[in-house]
Each structure stands twice: as structure tokens, then as C-alpha cells.
Write a structure and sequence with these properties.
By secondary structure, the protein is an all-alpha fold. Helix content is 43%, strand content 0%. The chain has helices spanning 9-26, 31-38, 42-49, 56-65, 72-75.
């Protein structure tokens, strides 16, 4: 299944869990072996493979154990590697701000 914006969060979690389980099996590694290598309990691995939430640190440990940590870079790409970063006078933003709308005083001309 392709992950896209139309999928619900639980469907995405289930798909990720299914992919992870297949990677583990193809590695080949049992849950017990993965637990020993990643320092994550077998129960946590089983919960994750069934689509439950296990926390970010545990996910990172599991991905490292299966040698998939480089794929994390695809999850949230480095903003300094975007083409717009290399444009002159491009300073990184410190925070997001909403734009002010100043069209309150603008009228079509037929209003009273």
C-alpha cells in the first residue's frame, strides 16, 4: 500500500508496522534477536508490529538494529539541503508566523 495524505493515522501506522515486520523477517532476525540487538523488549517489538505506538526512541533503536537508520533522513529532510537554502541572503527562519491580513479597510466601492 502506498502511504499518502488520504490515509488515516492508524492505517499509516499499520502499513509502517507491516513494512517493518517484513524487513525484520527478510533480514532475517527473530523478535528475540532484534530485542537483544536493539535493547528493546520483545513485547514492545510485538506491539509495534501490530500497529501500536512504541515511542520515538524505541523506533530509532529498532531501525538502527535493522540498519535502516539512514532512511530516517528521508522522513524529515535537512532544510539546509534544499535548493532555496543556497540563494543569497537566505537566513533560516526562527519561528512560523501568521500573515496579517490588511484587507479590512478595502472595499469594492458598492458597499455603504
Amino acid at each position: 500500500m502506498k502511504i499518502n495524505k488520504e490515509l488515516q493515522n492508524k492505517a499509516i501506522a499499520a502499513e509502517l508496522a507491516s513494512r517493518f515486520k517484513q524487513y525484520r523477517i527478510d533480514f532475517p532476525m527473530t523478535r528475540t534477536e532484534l530485542a537483544e540487538k536493539s535493547m528493546v523488549s520483545v513485547g514492545t517489538i510485538a506491539r509495534f508490529e501490530n500497529g501500536s505506538d512504541i515511542g520515538l526512541i524505541n523506533l530509532i533503536k529498532l531501525l538502527k538494529a535493522l540498519e535502516l537508520e539512514e532512511k530516517l533522513d528521508l522522513l524529515i529532510p535537512d532544510p539546509q539541503e534544499r535548493p532555496s537554502y543556497y540563494v543569497e541572503n537566505n537566513t533560516p527562519k526562527k519561528r512560523a508566523r501568521k500573515r496579517k491580513q490588511n484587507d479590512d479597510d478595502w472595499k469594492w466601492g458598492d458597499e455603504k
